[in-house]
Amino acid sequence: MSYPDPNNPYGQPPQQPQQPGGYAQPSYGYPGPPAAGAPYGGPPMGPSTMPGTVRANQVFLFVIALVQTIWCVIAVTVLIPDIEDEVKNAGTGAASEDLDLISDIGTGVMYTLVGVTAICVLLGIVLALQHGKGGNAVRICTIVYGAFGIMGGLITAALGLITTVLSILLIIFAAQGKSAAWFKRPKV
User: Fold this and answer.
1) Which residue windows does the record flag with biased composition (Pro residues) (predicted)?
2) What is the pLDDT of residues 143-161, one digit of tens each?
């Protein structure tokens, strides 16, 4: 009995080992069996339920938006009128024109900060609402939002401490692998 020549290009192809599940190993460019959890041989599906860290980020975004809204209300109702009252009580005379200019600059800066904070509130709410169906861009925007939240929280006082801590947690949770898997999952 003769054995086949291993260098013969026309000989039988080597036998492929069997995979678990009864499917043969794909050969000659034919597709193999679908991957576990992947319909129709596509890429594996991501998590089917939102991980706890992603849900926590969603809640943190709503809380940060609430804290920023409270700051806007306090700024408009208390801080800006206090600036104007202090300038009025400061004195009269030649220096009053300079004080009026300082008052106008101070209130202008405060209104600008209130406007920027209001935009951040809206952005935080939009990001929180997109956590359930958004893609990887939502995760990246959440990380950037958290970085700006840290900077903004350092500027303000007691309310800023809440914003700073929650913003740090936003970055930590959004950078984890579970969050990446959730946001990179195929959308239906």
Assistant:
1) 31-44
2) 999 988 888 777 776 677 8
